[in-house]
Amino acid sequence: MHPFDDLTPEEIHRARIAVQSLHRGEELVFKGITLEEPDKNIMIKFLQDGLSGKIQDPPPRQAYCVYYIKASDTLMTTWIDMKTNLVSKSEAPSNEFHGNVDFNEVDDVEKMVMQDPAVLEQIRRLKLPPHLTVIAEAWGFGSDGLADRERQYQVYMFVSEVGKPDSNHYARPLSFSPVVDPVRMKVLRIEIIPTGADWTLKPLGPYEDNGRNEYVPEANDLRTDLKRLHVSQPDGPSFSIDDGNVVRWQKWYMRVSFNYREGIVLRNICYDGRPLFYRVSLSDMTVPYADPRSPSHRKQAFDLGDVGAGLVANNLKLGCDCLGSIAFLDGFISDRRGNPLRKENAICIHEQDNGIGWKHTNYRTGRACVVRNRELVIQTILTVSNYEYILAFIFNQAGQMNNQVRATGILSTCAIDQETQVEFGTIVHPGVLATHHQHILSLRIDPAIGSYSDGNSLACQESSPFPHEPTFNPHGNGYISKTRIIEKSDGVDIDINRGQTYLIQNPNILNSINGRPISYKIHSPPMQKLLASPDSFHYKRAEFADHEIYITKYQPDELFSGGQFTNQSRGGHGIKKWAARRDNVENEDIVVWVQFGLNHIPRIEDFPVMPVEMMTVSLKPVNFFTRNPAIDVPPSTLASNQSVQVNGCCGITSSL
Amino acid sequence: MHPFDDLTPEEIHRARIAVQSLHRGEELVFKGITLEEPDKNIMIKFLQDGLSGKIQDPPPRQAYCVYYIKASDTLMTTWIDMKTNLVSKSEAPSNEFHGNVDFNEVDDVEKMVMQDPAVLEQIRRLKLPPHLTVIAEAWGFGSDGLADRERQYQVYMFVSEVGKPDSNHYARPLSFSPVVDPVRMKVLRIEIIPTGADWTLKPLGPYEDNGRNEYVPEANDLRTDLKRLHVSQPDGPSFSIDDGNVVRWQKWYMRVSFNYREGIVLRNICYDGRPLFYRVSLSDMTVPYADPRSPSHRKQAFDLGDVGAGLVANNLKLGCDCLGSIAFLDGFISDRRGNPLRKENAICIHEQDNGIGWKHTNYRTGRACVVRNRELVIQTILTVSNYEYILAFIFNQAGQMNNQVRATGILSTCAIDQETQVEFGTIVHPGVLATHHQHILSLRIDPAIGSYSDGNSLACQESSPFPHEPTFNPHGNGYISKTRIIEKSDGVDIDINRGQTYLIQNPNILNSINGRPISYKIHSPPMQKLLASPDSFHYKRAEFADHEIYITKYQPDELFSGGQFTNQSRGGHGIKKWAARRDNVENEDIVVWVQFGLNHIPRIEDFPVMPVEMMTVSLKPVNFFTRNPAIDVPPSTLASNQSVQVNGCCGITSSL
């Protein structure tokens, strides 16, 4: 067993037994059982010795377990040594921390709400026609500092079609929202949601139906002129998967793992036998909403910390989510009782063609050399209630690694009166408002540029003009690029006007041709930072959302930039605190956190399901190799790719 | 014949005859014969009446001809009426303007240089071994205001392998550069290029060979583990091409044309019968270099205006440049004698799959709806000496149009002494420097949002926090987006920190559901603007490179943002001048110019041929439709896409 292997079902089982032995007679509600990150110092030796063929003792293997003692709201974290099955450590975090939402509890809450007399009374007032019914949807409560120390759920209510369980209820939001205590499992109060342009609350009257807005194919006239497109690999894929998680493809090597919180975690990423990254994963994400009115002011999802990317991973059905020759990996998480739960087909791996990789034509001889840009995709897809994220790590033959996020799914909606407009949202259906919101993601990169044991540095590269003076730059065209090392842990920004780019460097290894430190540069999309006021709870909680880049010195247990527990968090336990140590981060064991995302001003075109919005963070080699690493890709030829010429003339005559 | 149809070979022939009749007995050197843009006012009526089935007289059809009277350096522009074959207008532009570089002249210059005694004397001093030879490569001269009124060429010299015409000579640059007068066809002088860190010039000595750096496959050990990937469309493609240039695909409609300067021009782009854009093309491009020393200080390519995207368009060989079912269009330009010249396969059209288009899973029922993101690609590829641009317009099923640019090819190089470093370039091979440079492109969008005849406006949308105050925003989370119309023609910028986005709006048509003006928004990549000093020639010439967006009121003959003639231009005749009119551009016939590009700090990985660097400008509907226009795309199913599951286990055992 490799230290980076995920817990097996058998190990999850043993961990549960060990935890239960600590709490004899008590019923436990498990939130997660997962591999504790192995000791990095030992792992570095282990990996380094592996490179030279030596065998080193692996670090101790531990399970990390998070759970509640049922009906007590006491959150516990316990570590189990997998060799001895003994508890290594167990503690109850402060009661300001809360475990993540899980779908068993959500289901319980939603069912309970639909039987609550006060809720039923509200529903009666709607005077719904017989073909309509009501659906409850539980959200994490968020924080505003007002009586929110206890764990709660905010439940949004919608109208749906009787007997059509896949009708899009998000097109029919209601303006009341029960608040639920999940420990005592009861409705605490029903909040009324304003439907005008201000805070005014209106009494609930009979429901005015504005009609359906469905996404299921049977409810839409589908276009009929889309011809089939097949992707096939007659000789099979170019990748291999060994030992269940070792992926090799086109000189790339990595270990793929999966946990309930981050979903995909990639470890020990190497190219051509040279280490690049020790560990890469999506660390956190925050989705704060713009509506200042209660209860919407608390709407701020942390989809990874509040719920879990692995917990809500889709079963990637063959042939629907991907095209071509696809391999699937299952993940194992735990259910509420701590039993192993198989997440089938949670990860898919396939190759794709992404156009031309490089090309040059010699104009003297007319000879063209062209190669295609083949990519390897390692993908997972999350459904967090209404919303979907397609998360992929993509590798190419030029030594580049991308983290691509596609945002899709259904906008979070609320009711709005007819003839009303607000500046914090867009009407996407009659009577339906989709509030502006930001998606700010945080990618954690634990680098090992060219070596497991060397220190790395983060350098800011920027370009500026030479002074226009008569000696060196008399014509005024000259400019230079300079790099500056970030010396202390910090949050830093990207100034496009100065051409700033950040490079993760290994200052101990210089390029053999040009003498520059071997590096990987970070290319991230432009991002408007968190808009919420710095003294708001949105801001305090979204620890990472104020800088495009954070750099910290590696510390175990610092994996999640928003903090270990984000559900109803209040800030103070994440990246800001760690960066504030002002550790030396020059030529050290560093961690780089890349924030990216979008300010989503909804378009009506984003409803009922939004077309994917794509964001990509790229990690590209800079003076890491001695030439284009894709120069050895075989040329694209007709014989190998079997493309065909078509005339495109379908006999349709021009009329426009 | 449709007014937007390109000139036919027969028309080019007739135009040449008509021009020649104006210059009896004189030999002419043609630079271009192309369709004069038809009168827009007449065209709007023509297109509008076409929508309602009426037939309107087309505007007069004219050819625009640019040429030199041979050996006189007199540039002429003449318009020919294609109905009468008569000259409508003829004029000699001011002698500060110069025609574009063409490959016949480049060939003549390069051959002449290689026979020039002074050049041969320099070559002798190199004392080359018998397996090496010298290659001359002619560049546009650029401008610095010093004795550059006359048209000239700057010729760069390289060493190459005897008998290996596709050896990469860019890995062996020489440090002398002849300057050529192309009218008298003679070498004016030989300039020495500094090879140290400053302006010091060194006498040319025997050539020190630093070895080859080849990109041709036979000179490289190719990787052998890349398996074949086929794309096939068993029922043919989903697009049709009628009348040679009318492309229909998935509710899209457009006319594709081709000219020597812009390459692809798209006109009358509609979705589902609704007009979107009257005309879209890449208008201009500048590539200024960072080396302040002579002669590099003049290095600033305008690849479209100085040469021509159509002139240097590649023959897109079937199955090498694209994958799948591909249609090709030829283009027609003119040769130096004014005869029609077929550019075979200059444009390719094909479909591609770009991952998931939208997805939602109902967590209650587990039902997933997912569609793929099929795209139509209309592509051309340019080779401008060492460098390649892959230019594509890409359409999807969600009403989105992209202009994607892939930069590839070979870096422009010069010689550098061993053990020398400079801050304005990167060593990419021993003794070889690739200078920093910017690529700034200018996309011209002549919009017709929702109507041919309505005025359009450009709106700047930005997001800002509500004030954190107790009445409306007591929790401090609220934020709003507002739009502001640009009232006067101007250059404007994108401030990421304020979340600025620009929307092209039709204020006369409001969305039927939400009452907002129908719009298309511009999403362009972040760009560092021109770094050259504002009083430099680089800056004066790159009229468009100081703002991400320009907006002007439509004027005929304002097609090229750097000006009609960019070769050795001095500025003052492009977008800056037009914007300075401060025309009213609110609800008017506007043109929007989008600048984008990259500051290329070369990596050693960009040599010998660079992996594609991708930049995309997107035009996305915003409240133009009433819902996601791709909601009617048929779902992706295994039956239709025939994907297969693989286990990825190739029996390779883990060793790392």
Model description:
Two copies of one chain form a homodimer. Chain A is mostly beta strands and 656 residues long. The first copy, chain A, has three domains: 83 residues, Nuclear Transport Factor 2, Chain: A; 113 residues, Nuclear Transport Factor 2, Chain: A (Roll); 298 residues, Distorted Sandwich (Beta-galactosidase, Chain A, domain 5). Chain A contains eight helices and 33 strands. In chain A, strands 10, 11, 12, 13, 14, 15, 24, 27, 30 and 31 form a ten-stranded antiparallel beta sheet that branches. The longest helix of chain A has 14 residues. Chain A is globular. The C terminus of chain A is likely disordered.
Keyphrases for this structure?
Nuclear Transport Factor 2, Chain: A; 656 residues; 10-stranded antiparallel β-sheet; homodimer; globular; Beta-galactosidase, Chain A, domain 5; mainly beta
